[in-house]
Amino acid sequence: MKKWIWLILLALMAVVVVGSRGSTFFEQPPSPTIVERIPVETPQPQPESKEVDNILQVSTDKLLTHIQKLNFQRYTTTERSLTRTYITTELKKLGWKPKLEKFSDGVNIFAERPGTNKAAKAILVAAHYDTVASSPGADDNASGVAVVLEIARLLGSYPTPRTLQLAFFDQEEAGLLGSQAFVSKKARLQNLGGAIVMDMVGYACYTAGCQKYPAGLPVKPPSDKGDFLAVIGDTEHLSLLSAFQNSQNIPSTALNKQELNLPAVLTLPIPFKGLLTPDTLRSDHAPFWYQGVGAVLVTDTANLRTPHYHKPSDVPATIERSFFTGAAQIVVNATTTLLEKTDFGRRQEAGGRGQNSSVSGNWALS
Questions:
Q1: Is 314 helix (H, G, I), strand (E, B) or coil?
Q2: Do 327 and 229 meet the contact criterion of CB atoms below 8 Å apart?
Q3: Cα(141)–Cα(131) distance, rounded to whole angstroms?
């Protein structure tokens, strides 16, 4: 009898052990969840990071709309007047107060947004708005005008230490007449820290051999494809060129970063104010050089690349959308950098040129 009792006790003990190991036959009911009462705090709004605040991203649609609106020859007095009406109307929509500055052969447009540091010299961004006869000038130079208008939109209410000035030059195609008239006002040059001039920034080609170079270029050409943006400056003001060295960097938080596809930047420091390379003087930056004011020309290299140079075929359909958007973003980035700096000097050592190619050469421009 005792033997059977012991056997029964051992069996019961085995059942208890198995149940304690989680057997599916003896599942324990789940323990009730213990909830602690924690006071709920209302989250305080956090300021956006500086990186987010500094996103000044260009709009491809706005850029192309400007080119479409300017899709007509801008050569005659009437045509140039219509162009001025469009530009001034757009500036006023953005809160600017454009002024018409007449000279003997035409009319320039000028506007400025004061900076927060009155002692800091201004930065000018400019482009010519006229064309040669028989060409609607989508690339030459509605593309430059569009970028200046986009800068007006992005930076018009964006506070920076330096004053931002905008200029639209008339009669560039007649011999840089508008920019010559502009720099003839010596008083305005005293407070000018540098100028960014755009002349053709919307055309790119991606087939081997489509990019040409003049004979005698002292360095090996960087590419035989026209997929880069050239920035030409004088060696006395390398600080302006250096602003374009890191202009391909955009915040990681940019909404359409992958769509921008920023082109490579080729910086070209030119010695002796272009005396040895006269083809580098064929746009509106040259009169600033003559006056000792730093200026850079931003260009897609004009007739060294595009087959539509000064032709009726220079129409909006020939603008390379991706390249144009990227070129505009680079100019916005460089302009913002210059506007936020108050200590860049007249000269900069060549060693600070960064990773982009820097060469001197004879460039045929508009």
A1: coil
A2: yes
A3: 7
Mean pLDDT of 33-54: 37
Reported as a single tens digit per residue, the pLDDT across 132-151 is 999 999 999 999 999 999 99
Q: Supply the pTM of this predicted model.
A: 0.80
Tell me the three state secondary structure of residue 87.
helix
Q: Are the C-beta atoms of 204 and 262 separated by less than 8 Å?
A: no
Distance between the two ends of the chain, CA-based, in angstroms? Answer: 118
Sorted by sequence, the CB contacts under 8 Å of residue 335 that are 6+ apart come out as 123, 125, 151, 155, 164, 196, 243
Query: Phi and psi at residue 196, in whole multiples of 5°?
Result: -115, 115
Average pLDDT, the chain: 82
* DSSP letter for each residue of 18-83: HHHTT-GGGPPPPPPPP----PPPPPPPPPPPHHHHT-----HHHHHHHHHHT-S---SHHHHHHH
The 10s digit of each residue's pLDDT in 204-238 is 999 999 999 876 565 677 889 999 999 999 999 99
Question: Bigger pLDDT: 337 or 1?
Answer: 337
Secondary structure, 3-state, 222-263? CCCCECEEEEEEEHHHHHHHHCCCCCCCCCCCCCCHHHHCCC
Least Cα distance to 56 among 135, 160, 128, 138 occurs for: 160
Contact 126, 169 (CB under 8 A): yes
Strand partners, 90: none
Residue pair 346/97 in contact (Cβ under 8 Å)? The answer is no
Confidence of residue 259 (pLDDT cuts 50, 70, 90): low
Percent of the chain with pLDDT over 70: 73
In terms of phi and psi (left: phi > 0; alpha: psi -120 to 50; beta: otherwise), the region of 272 is: left
How far is Cα 131 from Cα 143, in angstroms, rounded to an integer? 12
